[in-house]
Design a protein that fits this description.
This protein has eight helices and seven strands. It is an alpha/beta fold and 252 residues long. Strand 6 and strand 7 form a beta hairpin. The protein has one domain: 3-Layer(aba) Sandwich (Rossmann fold).
């Protein structure tokens, strides 16, 4: 029964993203005033400052430690393409449960001639189709809050990560600043769903977004969950008044 419920939930989320896939990139950039692009670059910088297997810091520009990277909930491959542009690892594998989003991601990859460097495939974040210790790094941008069972997804990421490998998670948060928070809540709860509905013609998707952000355990609470799932040296880096956070952790 639990498995049936998981399949239903997963199918509903996949269908929602399939419906808005054609407008997803435009709305992401438009509704965030293009700040999301800067956030992804910052997430890549967190990979760049990763620790080597020996535990010493090293520049990834002239160190091949992150040859194989997994991008979970890759969507239209925005983060995968940003990683490829700045770090040039040997290969990036992106997985997602929305075939509609993956189709657009593949178009973007083909347009840039990067089919050899980035491959996208259907995959469930809570049952990753990879062996233990396969990847040097695992990344997620705006995807963990869509995991039905958060800990299960994090444990899977930990399992597929090599020892001394790094996880980088970029996710929305609710800012603590008493001036910024009401503005953020108003924009996220009223303006964003209205504009999203207008452009994507999907009412559910852009009501789901603020709901998923408000119910997500961000900040110290999420850090604790990451540690519980096995990650060490977990750090939080707030972005743009705390509207988003980058969480990093190491598999020791």
């Amino acid at each position: 029964m639990q498995n049936q419920n998981h399949n239903k939930e997963r199918t509903a989320i996949a269908q929602m993203f399939d419906k808005i896939a054609w407008r997803y990139d435009f709305l992401n950039h438009f509704l965030s005033f293009n700040i999301d692009k800067r956030w992804r670059k910052k997430a890549v910088n967190e990979l760049r400052s990763g620790k080597g297997r020996s535990g010493t810091s090293s520049s990834l520009n002239h160190h091949h430690q992150f040859e194989h990277i997994l991008d979970v909930a890759t969507g239209t491959a925005d983060l995968a393409l940003t990683i490829q542009k700045h770090l040039k690892p040997k290969h990036i594998t992106g997985i997602d449960i929305s075939e509609g989003m993956l189709a657009i991601g593949r178009q973007k990859i083909e347009k840039k001639g990067l089919e050899q460097q980035i491959s996208l495939q259907y995959g469930d974040s809570e049952a990753l189709p990879f062996n233990e210790q396969t990847f040097d790094a695992v990344t997620v941008a705006f995807g963990v809050r869509n995991f039905e069972h958060l800990e299960k997804g994090l444990i899977e990421m930990y399992r597929t990560l090599k020892n001394r490998g790094k996880v980088v998670i970029l996710e929305f948060a609710i800012p603590k600043n008493r001036f910024i928070q009401p503005v953020f809540r108003f924009y996220f709860s009223r303006i964003l769903p209205f504009l999203g509905r207008l452009v994507s013609k999907d009412a559910f998707a852009y009501n789901y977004l603020p709901d998923s952000v408000h119910s997500f355990p961000h900040g110290a609470e999420f850090k604790e969950i990451m540690e519980k799932c096995g990650f060490s040296e977990v750090k939080i880096k707030p972005l743009t008044f705390g509207i988003a956070n980058i969480y990093t952790g190491i598999k020791l």
